[in-house]
């Protein structure tokens, strides 16, 4: 069974919410940090509380490496401890590292994030340098069941700058990227009908949602943009297939939920936000 199969089953069991552990030190509630600990150590304590509170309603967790790299070695230690803590729960974990480089360098990134200290179930990749920048990850995908999510149509406003450009055949650039990746992903199909080569499809532009879902029936989607970036359950539901086939990330919306729930402890507030998000997406899927 591939990690994508496990992710599919996790979504079937607990829903599509992907809890984003993009933990900035400034997100820790007042009085939470212990002065005798480093910033990274305090972030790990915060993350552990979030993971404990939300794992029963999380399809997966996503750890955004930039938040940890920005703290240097202390942060990388916190990154590893956070990954290890999530892995011990058995809930799938995506390392959001967005790598993209020449094949030889990509081989090293693959080793760095699919084995050893920073091993994750899934990683994110940027495809701009071409398919040879993705291929070095495929031995881990095809032989060890690992998974990748590759950027196709991103959630940021700048998605319009390159991804929406039109080709001579009428396709958008993001269609061409998605088509090539979807074809590449046929080499690693799982038991549940989804490839281990998944696609990142932002949940903030919905005009093409139905077309994108129909075009890539066997691609699992990582869908960022819910909450803080304005994506709604109604928008996101269109990227799922009967409530599965994708995971929906929310980072700031979950980590900072306590700021919108006065008097509620931060981990409980994160849990409440996950439950609300899960129900809102389910209701929106049911209405489709
Ligand atoms: O198109 C993309 C690809 C990745 N991301 C990542 O998702 C989260 C979003 O965080 P929020 O706080 O929920 O906005 C973050 O890690 C991004 O790096 C994305 O937003 N859009």
UniProtKB/TrEMBL annotation:
CDD domains: OMP_decarboxylase_like. Keywords: Decarboxylase, Lyase, Pyrimidine biosynthesis. Pathway: Pyrimidine metabolism; UMP biosynthesis via de novo pathway; UMP from orotate: step 2/2. It catalyses: orotidine 5'-phosphate + H(+) = UMP + CO2. This is Orotidine 5'-phosphate decarboxylase. The keyword Lipid metabolism does not apply. It is an enzyme of class 4 (lyase). InterPro entries: Aldolase_TIM, OMPdecase_AS, OMPdecase_type-2, OMPdeCOase_dom, RibuloseP-bd_barrel. Belongs to the OMP decarboxylase family. Type 2 subfamily. GO terms for molecular function: orotidine-5'-phosphate decarboxylase activity. The active site is at 98 (proton donor). It holds the Pfam family OMPdecase. It comes from the Bacteria. Residues 16-270 form the Orotidine 5'-phosphate decarboxylase domain. Its EC number is 4.1.1.23.
